[in-house]
Amino acid sequence: MHLNFLLRSAWHAKFLPFAAVILIPFALNSCAHTSDRQFAPGYSDARLSNLKTFYVRNDSEDQEDKQPLAADLVSELNSLGYKATTGSSQRPPSKVDAVISFSDQWMWDITMYMLSLELQLREPGSDTVFATAKTVRTSLVRKSQKEMVRETLSKLLKNQ
Amino acid sequence: MTRSIRSLLLIAASIFLTCFFVSCAGSTDKTAMMPTNATASSRTGLPVTAIVTGGTPRSEVLANVTNEDFKEALETSLVKSGLFKSAGSGGYRVEAFITSIKQPMVGISMTVGMEVSYVLKKGGSTVWTKSIKSSYTAPMGEAFVGAVRVRKATEGASRENIAELIRSLDQKL
User: Fold this and answer.
1) I want to staple A134 with a disulfide (CB 3.0 to 4.6 A). Which of A118, B57, B100, B171 is the partner?
2) Pairing verdict, β A129-137 and A111-122
3) Could you report the per-residue pLDDT of A84-102, keeping only the tens digit for each?
4) Least confident stretch, A21-30, A77-86, B26-35, B53-62
5) Chain B partners of A122 at a C-beta cutoff of 8 Å?
6) Which of B5, B11, B102, B168 should be substituted to probe chain A, the one whose Cβ sees the most A Cβ atoms within 10 Å?
7) What CATH architecture applies to the domain A34-157?
8) What is the predicted ipTM?
9) Which residues are CB-neighbours of B169 under 8 A, at least 6 positions away?
10) Which chain B residue's Cα is nearest to A42?
11) Segments making up each domain of chain A, as ranges
């Protein structure tokens, strides 16, 4: 009886399959915004208070494409009162307090948008990561690249 | 009747395709994160304890790696490799910071990349540090549902990472 009812309903709703195709991905992709920071064991805010100079490392496979993002990171660090440079070499060319590496993820929904931005703070010598921050914003709560940079850097360095 | 069956088939197809491509997995299994053939020739004869940060809480939906599971996988693998006598305090301490896990959202072969920063300490002083990157690709043959492939790829990347740690420590100790 229930099956018959379902079959008749489906027959009447000729757009149901199309609606399902559109609705299922929506149901699986929730409207989410998260921004968090994590420390390596033994590290805390105290390590961050000594940081004044940074090297933003752009060593990804698509360096040219990532250059605007690296430039935004340097610009935002400068506006926060830090000294920052960027480059593609693994080791910073001059002495710095920390290296920042980054990775971003983009999605398409009408237009392209930055889904997530992840920053890692590394010891300049050993290259080990001692703090990370990640911001995730899905389509409905999307922000521009500059705003994602501002939000994630603030989280990483000031925990706002 | 034919149209209704066609409608139901289309709905079933859309659900099937969504499951096939979309990654939406359960948390990783700690035993699947332990490398099977990672043995070392060095022997410290001391116990080891691990501290892990950077993991994410257990989830029924996402292929997360929890601190607790990675710690257990790490300690068990380090002891099994022969590098350390047992899991416990009084010897070495491995501090692991899971800094990134990059999982695909859709795909046929799912590749997951992972980076873990390790610090090895003995008696409070740092003996060795290294940041290890690993990746693992779960092909279609490994699991049919995309969600499961992501989980298997994440477990594989964790396994490779721990195996590389054991190889590095074997050279250092």
Assistant:
1) A118
2) antiparallel
3) 999 999 899 999 999 999 9
4) A21-30
5) 131
6) B11
7) 3-Layer(aba) Sandwich (3.40)
8) 0.72
9) B40, B42, B78, B83, B120, B128
10) B95
11) 1-30, 34-157
